Amino acid sequence: MKTYSALGAAIALAAVPFLVGLNEYYLFLVTLILLYTTIVVAWQLIGGYGGQLDLGAGAYHGLGAVVTGFLMVNYGVSGWVGLLVSGAAAAGVAFLIGYPSFRLGLKEVWYALSSLALVLILQKIFLLWTDVAGPLERYIPYAEFDPVFMRAGTKIFYYYITAALLASTFLIVSRIRRSKTGLYLISIRENEEAAEMLGVDVRRYKLQALMIYSFIAAVTGGIYASMVGFYHPTLFDSWISIQTATLAIVGGLGHLLGPPIVSIILLTVQEYLRITLGAVIIGLHQVIFGIILVVIIMFKPDGLGPLIDSLARRFPASVRR
Amino acid sequence: MDALVLEGISKNFGALAALTNVNMRVQVGEVVGLIGPNGAGKTTLFNIVTGFTKPDRGRVKLFGEDVTGLQPHQIAARGVARTFQIVKPFFGMTVYETVLVGAYLREKDEDNARQRAEVAMKLTGVYHLRNRYARELNTPQLKLVELARSLATQPKLLMLDEIVAGLTPAEVDAMTALVKRIRDEMGVTVLLVEHVMRFVMNISDRVVVLNYGEVIAEGSPSEVSSNLKVIEAYLGGKSGS
Ligand SMILES: Nc1ncnc2c1ncn2[C@@H]1O[C@H](COP(=O)(O)OP(=O)(O)OP(=O)(O)O)[C@@H](O)[C@H]1O
Ligand SMILES: [Mg+2]
């Protein structure tokens, strides 16, 4: 049954470019949606399982864009290498931030705020650091189709890279969820002291979750920079942090299927609203999007995860019969 | 051989002396009861042994090793398990998952960990609850689950903080039998804090009495229960003449 669902998801992901008629603009939007969804899925590790309200996604995403872009622009380094280097850089920053935070026992709103501050701090640093970024956009050399350099004129190239990234992120996260590490992270979320007394090295596991998530968030940033063809410090975007946490919570903390499904749907709605209403009254789409989120949380305080899980359980059973 | 040695432990919370120069030892294989009126410092002593609280002065030794200042997970790795006076359940996890967390301390392999967890659940009588979420359970059940997950870590020293508080007399008797089995069949040393005298006196080889953070008496259950200082402490009187 599982293999059928996986196959179905894979076929659906593969078919999307044709469903949008290979239109470059729509391809750009669906790639964007999948990139943001990937961050939401990775965020489950630290937020959904580890229970830490991390708002650093914008920092790691931005770091991925800047580091990958910088290497492509200045040294002609392949984007693929850039993704790995920027992922490692983000994991390194996550370590530098996470180690003292978890050691000091920063939690809840204090952890949330300090991780959000990272987004703003990195943005300022790269605005001032003109050797690497600075206030001007830096353009990545154009290539009609250069898969080795990871650059192409058509968005479908980036779409498939992103779809593969989302699928692997989902597999990694679901694997961790079923492992000892996943169980340990959830026990930390449920009660840190009790977990610690059962031998769980709370700091180490939180740090591990933070580093894997930040690596993946950076990879999404690198793909983004290569797709749009430039990078700029505004890619350190606190909106991405908030969007990530919000979608993960609305999708259901710690649920496997809820967050990606809800992210894809709501991000699609958001983009639709932006296209249709964004020009009518500036910001109207964000207001409406906000109202949708509030309504969902009012009626389903645990998010849509439980509902989606039970649907997922029922559906295959009825098919089988 | 000593499982636990406390040497000159003192701990102040601001102006309050929660523990003052406490010396104590628990031998391997013993069941030691730690009693004393409310606020005597019993839970504080547990927190110091398990690394949740740092003592102001004194040393903690486990199985001959100085462990003062180690973190709780390091204490757990050295063979100490503990239940909490106010239960600390994993509400969003099933009983099975909860106990499995404990089992993973010494069993790296998933199948072995599962087996270990099942043994602990069967011993404590919560196996039939294995697929229930902790949030669906009542307090006596949660206490048993807490004991099960502690046992799943395969401890050498088990510390129980008021494990029978709030249980019915029949449940207290069952717990007495269970703790005796844990000691006899698994060879686990037990240190327990308790107000329920029927339980402590029935099960302990030795009883230590704390009052206002000081050890005021120590001995066999019958010695301690006839000790005048202990009776005064429990009647709430400050020793007069
Ligand atoms: N973290 C803390 N900060 C300040 N005071 C504390 C703290 N923990 C304990 N105390 C105080 O220290 C004293 C000893 O508390 P402790 O919890 O160890 O007592 P106890 O013997 O376990 O009592 P009980 O039988 O009621 O559980 C009490 O006066 C308590 O109020
Ligand atoms: Mg107490």
From TrEMBL, chain A:
Cellular-component GO terms for this entry: plasma membrane
Per UniProt, what is the membrane topology? Multi-pass membrane protein
Which coarse location class applies to the principal site listed for this UniProt protein? Answer: membrane
What Pfam families does its record include?
A: BPD_transp_2 (PF02653)
What is the superkingdom listed in this entry's lineage? Answer: Archaea
State where the protein is found.
Cell membrane
Q: List where this protein forms a coiled coil.
A: none
* Name of protein: Branched-chain amino acid ABC transporter permease
Bilayer-spanning residue ranges: 25-46, 83-102, 109-129, 156-173, 210-232, 244-269, 276-299
Q: Name one GO molecular function term.
A: branched-chain amino acid transmembrane transporter activity
Which UniProt keywords are given for this protein, alphabetically ordered? Cell membrane, Membrane, Transmembrane, Transmembrane helix
